[in-house]
Amino acid sequence: MPFFVTGACLDVLDKSCIEECPVDCIYEGGRKMYINPRECIDCGACEAVCPVTAIASDLPLTEPNRPWRDDNVAFFESVLPGRDQPLGSPGGASGLGRVEADAPLAAMS
Amino acid sequence: MSGDEVDLVVVGAGPVGLYAAYYAGFRGMTTAVVDSLPEPGGQVAALYPEKLIHDVAGLPGIRGRELVRNLLQQASAYSPRWLLGQSADEITRLDDGRILLRLTSGTEIVTRSIVLAAGIGTFKPRPLPVGAEFLGRGVDYFVTDLDAYAGHDVLVVGGGDSAVDWALALQPVARSVTLIHRRDRFTAHEASVAELHRSDALVRTPFVVHALSGDRSVRRAILRDTASGELHEIDCSRVVAALGFTADLGPLTRWGLRIVDRHIIVDSTMSTEVPGIYAAGDVTEYPGKVRLISVGFGEAALAVNNAYVAGDPSASLFPGHSTAIA
Predict the structure, then answer these.
(1) Does A44 touch chain B (CB under 8 A)?
(2) CB-count exposure of residue B82 (10 Å: 0-12, 13-18, 19+)
């Protein structure tokens, strides 16, 4: 999963990225967006349009970005507050809608 | 067109599908290539035609567009049948074991085997949020024939390579070209954007289409400046909506294939769980899978050669070397 959303998206949620993603894999959390690592096809279309440069790649992964990469994974693979199982791979963000929760790092930032 | 028969249908005209078509031709199989987009090249052509690709063996750096052109030339040596602008829809197993493939256009084709080089699935143009009623009546998603725009006032919508390239290509034939994009920043190749700004095209950002009006065909567009909220009305008799694509596996999910996380499970011969159906490229999944163009090319050769032997068990799996061909 080379692409993920960093903390620069916190409380911005511009969502330009959603309009570009060809596979509908960018999900909306409470305070930021999250890219589903199992659904992203690494095309990079979202990175170019983010007005706050919040989308980063793990090729190469920088140390300041590492926690955000991990938090992005946790959004899908851990059990979020108010849910009883991980989101996993829902196969499209538009079908799921907004998720009223955040991964741990985003939630406490 | 019922009754058409081929040895192999390749679903997907991206790099891997084109290479599969080449290999099928090399093995003497009659081949048809199906793709939902009107032009070959798949994801590379639709999403990043100008990106330099550095990891194709033997090519230190090649633009997507050029790679597609080369692959097309390679595949065309064996004259496959091109069935573009239509997607694979349904399969029916015939009594003799062959497969009747029905396309979304209604075309039917009988084949012994299918290679699914389907990538991330069927590309669908992202629709304009307004003016759906003018689709095909002045509003199009693709420019396939420049002459159809002769003498027209053309509005191009979008900020990617397709939008900018079409705006540039249309200038010599159209009466006027206006390009709008919802952001100030373009995703198209920098040199093309610079050329657009130097050209006679009117470029307006950050603008969106607010409404389209007309009679039998589109006549006028109301544009909205999203920064100021102001509306601007312009004459336009043709609209090209180049807003990018979405993709999904669509009808393939109903073929009885084993699909996990949008990928088709294959074995080491690239066979799916449905007899006669193989897969290659980004769409496949197996232990150790790496989604790279070079891996896809290898899988295309595996899929085609295994499909060939399945059709003629006395044949050799190894195709011989291409250098032996005069």
Answers:
(1) yes
(2) middle
